[in-house]
Specification:
The complex is a heterodimer.
Chain A (H helix, E strand, L loop, with lengths): L24 E2 L21 E6 L5 E4 H5 L4 E8 L4 E12 H8 L7 E6 L4 E5 L9 E6 L2 E2 L9 E3 L12 E7 L6 H4 L18
Parallel strand pairs in A: 1-5, 2-11
Antiparallel strand pairs in A: 2-3, 4-5, 5-8, 6-7, 6-11, 8-9, 8-10
Chain B lengths: L25 E12 L2 E12 L6 E7 L5 E7 L10 E9 L5 H8 L6 E8 L11 E6 L3 H13 L6 E7 L8 H4 L4 E5 L16 H4 L8 E6 L1 H13 L7 E5 L5
The chains are: A mainly beta, B alpha/beta.
Chain lengths: 203, 254
């Protein structure tokens, strides 16, 4: 445990929501917008999503083809490494399991890189995006995802810090090794589990 | 503060720790506290080690209560890199946020001599190496990381490399007011301007940005989400390509 800061007692923990991981606060009605570039304006008529790399059937879906897949909803919480969380969110899209079932990962695949139409990348173990843990989503709280929040569609891996949930997602590349993405090369943790406060390298 | 979502994989410089290296917590001592405005203070910290940072980067500061509860926030460095060997003293500028758990503690409780846990520097995308032309666009408290860039340019006798536009509500809201002014800086006011200010008051407009664009420079935008969107729109309209625009949005982060 770190040393105590003189005169700091923090907010009352009696009222602290057990859904909040350590070091997080409830952003309530705010949904902060945090990314490092101009917000891209992508149109759905040219939008695609691709699964490639170590798969038997590299596959690209158009916007219409994605919407023809079995729908899947996430209802729950999201956690940003900058310390805000939003509780009880609803996102609609498709499960990554559905996409991988079509592309058929090869046995050697162990990790994925999610990449965006902007060039952003983030890395994850394959096990963190399978078995109902990850989505490609286009609706948030019942409304079309805005460009500021990654629309028309973003990646969603809600059990990890939200930088893993790549905005403006364009696809997944399956690899047989871990390959640090944009923030991970710049000091952020390779896995990013909010319950273990894996914010930066070495946590 | 702080930028934390997708940015493009541009050829950003890689300062600070090597990729994959741990970013360790250190205990810093507060050397001095300076009022920038009634709602902003700069905390000068003595680090226990030498650190190399780039203008635009930030540190994370952590408070720990007696029962182990912690609260962390990221704050921009407003001090420039001192030289190639790095610095042992850094300045973090902190805006007092309504209901801000950490900023309220820092503003109301911390005194010189206190110890604070920090780690950094962090953030390589929103960082300037001091050698290429840069257009700096700040909204309110977003001036802090850009002040580090302006200071770097002046300290290295290259003020010609930077142009800085800062937008504030009123003259009293301007951070670093005594030091900021110069031929490379312009100040615009959104609610109340000093007497005789030829521009008058009004939100940032493309006509504020266009005259500052020289072509080929990197633009660093820092401010609220609304300000950042207005500034990036104006930069794009003035011909600055997306790949040369870097944005740090200040969200509500307590």
């Amino acid at each position: 445990m770190p040393g105590t800061t003189r005169g700091f007692f923090g907010r009352s923990r009696a009222a602290r929501d057990p859904r909040l991981p350590p070091g997080q606060y409830d952003a309530r009605d705010d949904w902060p917008v945090l990314h490092a570039e101009a917000t891209p304006r992508l149109t759905t008529d040219r939008w695609t999503f691709t699964v490639e790399g170590l798969v038997d059937e590299p596959t690209t879906w158009t916007w219409a083809q994605m919407h023809a897949l079995a729908p899947s909803r996430y209802s729950g919480d999201i956690h940003c490494v900058t310390t805000w969380s939003k509780l009880g969110m609803t996102f609609d899209g498709v499960s990554v399991d559905t996409l991988l079932a079509a592309a058929r990962p090869q046995p050697s695949a162990t990790h994925v890189v999610a990449f965006s139409h902007t060039g952003y990348t983030t890395n994850l173990p394959l096990a963190d995006v399978t078995d109902g843990k990850a989505w490609v989503v286009w609706d948030a709280e019942g409304k079309a995802l805005t460009a500021e929040h990654g629309g028309p569609a973003r990646f969603l891996v809600p059990h990890l810090y939200f930088w893993k949930s790549a905005k403006w997602v364009a696809g997944l590349r399956l690899l047989d090794h871990d390959e640090p993405g944009f923030w991970e090369r710049n000091g952020y943790h390779d896995r990013g589990d909010p319950w273990r406060e894996q914010r930066y390298q070495g946590d | 503060m702080s930028s934390l979502m997708p940015g493009p994989p541009a050829a950003a410089p890689l300062p600070g720790p090597a990729p994959g290296a741990p970013i360790s917590w250190r205990t810093a001592r507060v050397l001095a506290i300076r009022d920038e405005t009634p709602r902003a203070k700069t905390f000068r910290l003595q680090l226990p080690h030498r650190t190399r940072h780039m203008a635009g980067q930030y540190f994370v500061l952590r408070l720990t209560a007696p029962d182990g509860y912690t609260a962390s926030r990221a704050y921009s460095l407003s001090s420039p890199p001192e030289g190639p060997d790095g610095s042992t003293v850094i300045d973090l500028t902190v805006e007092l946020l309504d209901d801000g758990e950490v900023s309220t503690y820092l503003h109301e409780v911390v005194q010189p001599g206190d110890e604070l846990d920090v780690r950094g520097p962090i953030g390589a995308f929103f960082a300037w190496d001091g050698t290429t032309p840069a257009l700096l666009v700040a909204g309110g408290s977003g001036i802090s990381p850009l002040m580090a860039m302006l200071r770097l340019a002046r300290n290295t006798a290259r003020p010609d490399l930077v142009r800085l536009l800062v937008s504030v509500r009123t003259p009293g809201d301007l951070y670093f007011a005594d030091e900021l002014r110069g031929p490379e800086t312009s100040i615009i006011y959104t609610r109340a301007a000093p007497p005789g200010d030829p521009r008058g008051v009004g939100r940032l407009a493309p006509s504020d940005i266009a005259p500052l664009v020289r072509g080929g420079e990197t633009a660093f935008v820092c401010g609220s989400t609304g300000f950042a969107d207005a500034a990036t729109t104006a930069l794009l309209a003035a011909g600055v390509p997306t790949r040369l625009i870097r944005v740090e949005r200040f969200g509500p982060s307590g």
